């Protein structure tokens, strides 16, 4: 462990330091309310300033949605020739209109959701920070968060440059006021997608990184003596079982039962965080995936028609190609975030094989609140009572 036992404040500040740029952009765009718990914003001393900033944040969020909605509505009313493409098949026209209104709904959900989910964000940050404190590997955790923040900032730069290129291209190739309406109706959903998938990635990648560290420690503890003839590992198809009651009695290299149980409990807590994150962001991620899928198909179709029968300038075709690639990265970011969790998900789980716990006791553990489980780690008593058998653990 690190020489100095660090408190939760250190780890909360570490999270803020690594993702400060993304979180501030999210708040400036209205996707995080003011004051935001994750940003550790002071709300006690400056009451008037807090009230003013809260009202400005809420007003800006409302203006973003109304502007996006009005721009789409104005284009349907005043420029129907742009919105209703007669040369496209009916299926593609339906997809196009579905995408437009999905984007409006997406902006609304992204702006309203965080203001109704303050408790979720607070509990998620508190749990994640508490697990970091219990794990007590500041150097490892900081290196993981640094790697995640570097990739996040690079993606943020890519999406920012892409938005600038698209905006300038539309202004050059289209006359006012159509160019303004197109840019405003496009930028609000685009910023929503970019900010939210980066927040989603930052959360899941952080969880996966910490779980990876837990699993590394578990491997060091449980696989430290492969050649021991009395090793406590038995194969059952593709699953390895570790019997803690046998491992504790080994003459050489006894298993550190307390550490295994502590790491296992933190592992379960992180998996619950990952499930909660997918549940919370699930609807918005589905809308983003569906909207992006339609957008990519429409872009590729437009590229195909313009290559066979050129209508746009050549530079516009390159911009459309870049547009399609950037939208494809949205799929990639969402998929890799979940894949990182999936890779670490099944390293160590409590099970009933040769275990003295009954089904009712296991059900009680699975339904125990996360905070109670984590609190019990600090005060766990590892003394084996007479006649009591320690639970087994399952490793893939």
UniProtKB/TrEMBL annotation:
The chain crosses the membrane at residues 20-39, 51-78, 155-173, 193-214, 281-300, 320-341. It is a multi-pass membrane protein. One of its GO terms (cellular component) is plasma membrane. It is found in: Cell membrane. Pfam families: 7tm_7 (PF08395). InterPro entries: 7TM_chemorcpt. One of its GO terms (biological process) is signal transduction. The keyword Transmembrane helix applies. It comes from the Eukaryota. Keywords: Cell membrane, Membrane, Receptor, Transducer, Transmembrane, Transmembrane helix. Belongs to the insect chemoreceptor superfamily. Gustatory receptor (GR) family. Gustatory receptor which mediates acceptance or avoidance behavior, depending on its substrates. This is Gustatory receptor. It comes from Anopheles quadriannulatus (Mosquito).
